[in-house]
């Protein structure tokens, strides 16, 4: 099977998957594990799929060092649905919850939770245009949880320290930075992440929930929205996204083969350092205005000194095999998303192109 | 690429996909539409995916003859989530809704809706062990909707007529019989279906909603649960299951290439007729006790005259390349699910095996 040279794909999500993962998925698409059929064609409750599902969870537990006192769930609905669903599960109708707002996604998390909890903004960086992350704020000790967004995909900020929340459980939407470096899971009440950046294809959402939070009463709701019910049924309360679960499993194996989260973390830091150095060293041709202590290692927004060059930049970069560099419509400019599946070689190709473009158009 | 002979896959779901669909998905897994990357790796809001999504909807509209006054949605959560979500959207907290209960799935539909609507069982066939479908019942004219399950995947019953509901909108969970024959969509208020039988892989749910029902106020809830918001954003309110959507598109093209729903419907009827004839003509070796006027064309449960032979039957059928014939644990015995992707050749292979097995063990 031939195909054209693979472009370097800087899409913010759905994002590039590891080529080894895609190649294996292609190889076994018609015959998975000797069944003679596709992984998409077998019962999720059958022996083969159940074994794969269990292996996948164990691989993730090993990668992240997830304590036994946490439940892992593979659900549907994306992070957005769980903005609402986590409030339904972790808070009662009269409860309060605190939110840290650092950009588009954390704002959305508050908004979707509002019908289910008295959501309070405990800290916000809106006043500085979401160019930083808060370092100090007061958490309501009665809050059901403190929610934050460790990495803001659109604004390009990232927490490099954990918010202090005392006894209030920390809940994190890690959609765009999960599995990007080692993490102390025991500091969190709940971590969740849409799959389509560092885990697998879209349509799958991963949740890691401290068991005591599963026992909170929540409110009257359908069983299908109740995390505790999904936990009792090992994420098979209804038919899961079996293809997504399978690709997540291949991705976890791939991360382990790369050396695990220590090695991935070092590589991600080197990639981000090189790209920010190229931007900062461009003599103002390219700019990134995020507080250097809060720059994202995953999503690097930047602007050209003259936005009249944007269209030329996008066309020339696409012709050079650099794909999906257009910034989010809310901010304009460019954005390079450099998740786990983007190797240093791809980042270097971008840096080389940017240098060349600046020389030609400077 | 070599693989063993493909078995005939009678799985109830996730179920067999058309081999032509799988082959195309495999071929273009690393390079979709000349992008150089997988369909899983592109933005759902990019030009290529948006074009595919729109074509897929138009293909479905053409296949099913969906009137312009209906909205088509490609969402997540499976039919089970929408048991709850449809009640949240189509009914206010004080409203009543009527349900027809004909087996496991329609019971589940009532149960998940209960926190959101005053659900009443308008008719049930529980008294006869769910071996038939009701022909007469009184609908509450004030009901927000009448819900029914045209095909019960576990019990193996199917409506071959529509319930009369007057002005009360008819809502149908067609997970296991959508696209299996021509349908007059204009008779329905809403049709929905999990993808994993006749549409594509699991993790995608299709909804066809009459536009006036989208304007019902529902209740306070997060935007992500509101059908009207998904409609405004063409099912891209959040990141959809892009792989599922893509495979649904390939499947719709495949159905059209088979001759559309008329041809598929004739083929499905012939498959079911042949299998029921083999059961009924087995001199009692095999039995199906469903009212003949309510037998499912999609899911054919049957028992051996001596259940001590079940294990032998399952092992021998697997060795003969007939996969996943074990009945649902709630009913025992056998079940052959013969959705669109199962050709007459596969059904004939099953019939031949059954005849041979009966001769050897009769």
TrEMBL record, chains A, B:
One of its GO terms (biological process) is L-serine biosynthetic process. It is found in: Cytoplasm. Homodimer. Binds 1 pyridoxal phosphate per subunit. This is Phosphoserine aminotransferase. Belongs to the class-V pyridoxal-phosphate-dependent aminotransferase family. SerC subfamily. Residues 8-350 form the Aminotransferase class V domain. Its EC number is 2.6.1.52. It comes from Oleiagrimonas soli. Its main location: cytoplasm. SUPFAM superfamilies: PLP-dependent transferases (SSF53383). It catalyses: O-phospho-L-serine + 2-oxoglutarate = 3-phosphooxypyruvate + L-glutamate; 4-(phosphooxy)-L-threonine + 2-oxoglutarate = (R)-3-hydroxy-2-oxo-4-phosphooxybutanoate + L-glutamate. Pyridoxal 5'-phosphate binds at residues 79-80, 105, 153, 173, 196, 238-239. The keyword Iron does not apply. HAMAP family: SerC_aminotrans_5. The gene is serC. Pathway: Amino-acid biosynthesis; L-serine biosynthesis; L-serine from 3-phospho-D-glycerate: step 2/3; Cofactor biosynthesis; pyridoxine 5'-phosphate biosynthesis; pyridoxine 5'-phosphate from D-erythrose 4-phosphate: step 3/5.
